[in-house]
Design brief:
6 copies of one chain form a homohexamer. Chain A has 79 residues and is α+β, with helices and mostly antiparallel strands. The first copy, chain A, has one domain: Macrophage Migration Inhibitory Factor (2-Layer Sandwich). Helices cover 37% and strands 24% of the residues of chain A.
């Protein structure tokens, strides 16, 4: 009876999208449920999936909000 | 000093409601805090409760987003 | 399809017990599942409960590990 | 920069195993990281995965500890 | 490779603010990442931080929604 | 009334240590509670901290269990 929580930033993966689409979310739910079936033999019906979308200003890495972190990485400045 | 996290889908439990009401949330907070007091003798004051409302398209079961899962269950089709 | 996570310190609620007993855990699971049924009309079968026991040295309050915090509270020293 | 948390009961999926094996865990980590790459174009390197193994007496469903719940399901008694 | 989750109520810390500001969030991300570096020698780059803002009606303490709890504390009524 | 969850791998930060020490944990609890006080004016007493130690085989990055990931990074092989 697995529970899978997927935390992602709230932003699009394609131009023009501002967040993961319903289709992308459905693909995550399907994929991870099938993974639990394949690897641990957990019935699809017993796996719960929760997708948690986090605003980019609420996500940090490298001591910085994620958008600043990415700009820093891209600029080649030392970390 | 318990912490209780209650994750529910963001939808109403009664016709016309689109989410749990403030009264329902207060009843969850009261009920679960009293449960910890009754079962484990934890003072009410030391229990924190967080209710996390999850959009239905972000909640999966049976490999499907929850609304599709429910339609499938109701239609009697094999799982 | 609620998910309830109950985080408690790993310690007994009665003399001689070093952790919540299986009976106490069963009572938490039963109580919180019935609460979701009563308040939000969620079927018992669709509620998952996870109890997470946390070692006391891994739990902090008031800027202190919880056992130090309790000693400080009981000694009446200013916080 | 996704974070995926996979909560499973601490029990084996094959005879003689008392928990998921290191190989099964590695397969979960690989599979879910590749899923995020495929669906949302997240680089493998930016996905963190945490597997949280929960003792069966700490996992509840249907208002019961999970092992009791399974026995009830298998016995065909009304829920 | 630590993951730090900071759950706070969605409310301002200064007059006129209705939530933590982007600057306050950046200060939390910076501070906690540096703490992990100082205490456990974790490189800044390997620490992920997620800030989870919770509506006040979804946060409970003392068996009450947090705003009621605070009014009760301030009024000096017995808990 | 913040709740801070710090997830770290269960391993030592100094030679001979197999996990974070009680002193290191106390420093994390103190540091993060003071950070919430400094940045958001949250009283020390109202911040809860939970440290969650995760076995290295249960932690993944780059599609690999973390110890394999680190070896790969150090060997300079392409990711």
């Amino acid at each position: 009876m697995p529970i899978v929580t997927i935390q992602i930033t709230r932003e699009g993966s394609t131009p023009g999208a501002s967040a993961a689409t319903a289709e992308e979310k459905a693909a995550l739910i399907k994929g991870v449920s099938e993974l639990l079936l394949d690897v641990l033999n957990k019935p699809l019906d017993s796996t719960f999936v929760v997708i948690d979308e986090v605003d980019t200003e609420n996500w940090g890495r490298g001591g910085l909000p994620v958008e600043q972190y990415r700009r820093q990485q891209n600029s080649g400045s030392p970390e």
